[in-house]
Amino acid sequence: MSGVPTSFHLGPLVFHTYGFGLAIAAYVAYLYSRHRLERAGFDVEPFGRFAAALVVSGLVGARIANIATNWSYYEEHLSRWIAVWQGGLASFGGIALALPVAIVLQRRWWPKSSLARFCDAMVPALVLGWALGRFLGPQFMVNGGGHLTHQWFGMRYAGQSGKRVPVPLIQGIEDGLLWGLLLLVEKKWTTRAAGILSAIAMMVWGLVRAYDEHWLLGDESHSGSLGVQYAGLALALAGSIIFVRQLAMRQRQRDLQESDV
Fold it and tell me: For the residues of 230-261, what is the DSSP string, one character each?
């Protein structure tokens, strides 16, 4: 028996808690992103269309990736392709599709702005939204838990037997701590190069996501699980490269300024 509700009723209507929670998280991320962009001096007039495009592309990419990595199941259950309320959204699939969409639209609607500055303004809000989404989304979906456990912190999830590691709660805490770290870096490291916040988020989130998949969620024989782990490590590596590159560019700019003096 599940210890968390996966749906609730309002009269004849049935609402799936998983999707409702993700909608709340997305709305909070939207408001916070808009606030941060406005504070950073960006024109927020086209931001509603930008956010809608990211949400749609992220959901589509996440679903496509999940279907692709679980094709042996979905080819026999075509009606489950759209059953996202039962879970089945692959994080990296969403990122893989939403990222190029975001870059194209950023160039279209904010052509004179720096992509690095734009990302730095957005990333803390996205991380906070992700943290809230972990608490309100996968925590209340079918098959939302991790590996079996007999520890005191184990929880029961619909569709899974026995007590499970409450991975959504753990990931929510991890993402919340990452959000706090980004705000601390932003406040204390005022002379940081543009893109540093985004690079830190990529490094930390990529490594933590790979760790969680390996130790708390994944099945080593499953291609989807291995893909998540490799994608997490690749994201962390890309963040490391951006971090070093942006610091080097910042140092070159300082050297040029000092030589001009």
Answer: HHHHHHHHHHHHHHHHHHHHHHHHHHHHHHH-
User: CA angle 56-181-117, nearest 5°?
Assistant: 55
89 residue type, one letter: L
At 221-253, the pLDDT tens digits run: 566 688 889 999 999 999 999 999 999 999 898
pLDDT in tens, 16-50: 888 888 899 999 999 999 999 999 999 999 999 99
- Contact at 8 Å (CB) between 19 and 141? no
Q: Quick one: DSSP state of residue 10?
A: E
Q: Give the residue from 254, 252, 250, 246 showing the smallest Cα distance to 202.
A: 246
Give which of 164, 238, 155 is closest to 200, Cα–Cα. Answer: 238
Q: Copy the structure tokens of residue 82.
A: 């759209």
